[in-house]
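Pasting two entries for a bug report.
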Amino acid sequence: MKISKKDALSWFEFFASLPEEEELMPGQQEIALSAFAQIEAAVKAKHDQLLSEIPNLKMLAGRTYYIGDDGLFPQGCKSCLLGTGLSAVRKTNRCNAACRFCYDYGALDRQPPVGEGMWEIGGTKFYEDDIDLLLSIQQKPTGISYVYLEPFMEIEKYYGVIRKFHQAGIHQHMYTNGINANETNLRALAEAGLNELRFNLGATNCSDKVIESMAIAAQYFPAVGIETPMTPEFFDSFQKKKDAILSSGIRFLNCAELHLNENNIDNYAGENLYMCRQGYISPIFSRNLTLRLLRQASEEHWPILVHDCSNRTKFARDLNLKAKEGGWFGQSTYGCEFAKLPYEYFLPVLRDEYFQFLEEEPMPKGFGLTDIVL
């Protein structure tokens, strides 16, 4: 069914009022999914329009969009989208920032430790000495990434592990907010063999100090770039410091479409949201800002590559990973991160008079709000 916006609003107001433990019946689920599909279809139409307006738009193997020199496409992303996936290496459970877009917002002080002297790789705990054993038994991945939470909180612990994976010929990249980066630890990281460093520049609203650290890093690493969730705050601060950022020596800008979970969704209450493929829930503004940046990059001939790391890209990533793992046809880990769908957070988009569904039909018989829908 192609539910009308008016009917969708009435039903979502009802769904939002239900007790948390009450599940929707199959007929009600059909109504809810119809509404989500209508919202998503309108969002996709806007995305398609914005994509059509970007000169020289490129696509990597049908999996993600970008603008710029092919040689600048980050190898870490290629490992993720084309290789054997991206193995996460976890160590640090602390952070020196509290970003409203963070998936651990409000829970940063409750993140469990990995363990003294230990590393989490593939969900398993390893000592540094165990990595030789791991590499001798299992097929090495095309790439690994250092995540969770801010590695530079204890960066000196990373050098030995990075050397081991470097000697094994595995591409390695790391995420940082850049607050604790300096020439000494950046040089040490590069000497250990880290291939790629990604700055979450949105974490500091494009801090001058972090931009300076990016320029220092560009002198030592084969590839330095930015990866940050696309928010209005980042977009505005980026525009103000665009020249300094683009001249810092970075190679790429990964524009991540912000998706929400139970920790950070309250920070975006009141924003227009959509659900992508019954999976990630995102503010509609996020990818719209990404596509505006891609167009700007193309029209202004920026010297860097700008990557549309969207929910669609994440979907392609998970399909690739499962295929490389030998999963069955169509298998993916992509899905919704909420145990129960937060219907109340979709009321703003349904109440927005400027947001319109593409096509509407009367509700089928038996699916009206006054009917008993099982």
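Entry 2 (this is the one that rendered wrong in the viewer):
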Amino acid sequence: MLDVSAIIAANRFGLGARPEEAGDVARDPQAWVRNQIYAPYVPPPLLADLPDAAEYTRQFLEARQQGGDGGVAEFLQRRIRQETLAAEIGARVQVAVQTREPFRERLVQFWSNHFTVSVQRPVVAPIAGAYERDAIRPHVFGRFADLLIAATRHQAMLFYLDNIGSVGPNSRAGQLGRRGINENHAREILELHTLGVGGGYTQNDVRELAKILTGWTVVTPPLARRSGLPESAVGMTRFAADAHEPGNKSLVGHTFNEGGESEGIAALQFLATHPATARHVATKLARHFVADDPPSAAVARLEKVYLETRGDLAAVSFAIVDLPEIWERPNTKVRAPGDLVIAAYRALDVKVTAGQLPGTMREMGQPVFAAPSPAGWPDRASDWVGPEAMLRRAEWAVAVSRRVRSPQSPEVLAGYAIGAVAPPAVRRAIAEADPAEGVALLLACAEFQRR
């Protein structure tokens, strides 16, 4: 049976213990977490054959050009409902269930949520998985500035927040009447991705950042023709100089001289190391790993490391592991529905087919890549726990227990899934029940519902 520290490591930092990793976690819980930060990044093999963002985007843009609105609708419907999205969701959840680096995988999901793109915008749906692979996964233990830049310039984000068509009014394209400036992307970068609400920016800063980001777009067939680019460039991200608003810009008290694409890079690097960004990121991380209302001391320690290292996320991750507040209290966080499903399949140690997963996540109320807004999924218990939600969780626990047969007995499952954090009476009830009922009791108990 795992002790309290091992349960905290497996559930708060990881995604729930699997039988094969329980021994490693038990030997040295903190070292088990730290070793995942040291490990070099290797892309999960399950994701290797999934579609490329540029190739999909090229197909979409060609369908839009050739088929009009009807052609686009047909193309999107086919790719979203029958092909790409289901495969992406299935692979993403399978990686989480099978990974031997669950702390890294938890952070992939955390940062993917921080820099949300949502399939509620249909054009984004088939490339939401590619976005996570390209922009998020390689950078979770890198520098926040690199993560921010990669997320900002990816096709999925440019489509999702409308920067693809943002044109400076005084640019060459603007003078020819090609659309106008769009502030959506700039506003979300300041409000959600960097400084945060109360971070000291104004509406004028939103407009200035929007100007800085004009020209950050995706190559369309007309743009390829105007720029003399080959057809193979269609669908790739590109800086379109003729759409960029000329002149110097002032952002949060800092002047950025006219510099084309380098203007945007410099602005994002400036925002990434701003004290307000450090505070915003530290608060979100502390909320995710410590408590819904994190202690100010924990936030301050993460903020300090962030500032001292200029946003080195490996250093910040080590600092999270060192927070005493995490190790002092188990089960301070309610598992979000997606977290709960993943933890269950990891504990049960059963094979899960990709086709089973999208529907399960949807039924539980947290469909993958489908956050309701650019703010992403919430991270507080009050957003997930209510009478209807708890009933849905209990019904799900019973349904899983009836269709899944774990190779382990419920008593053994409870030993590494909830371990010493569960009262003896709970463990005894699980052990004495028949196998299906024991699994249902385990998945529905308060100790498993929390991490």
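Dev reply: Rendering is fixed now. As a check, the viewer should reflect this: The first helix runs from residue 4 to 13.
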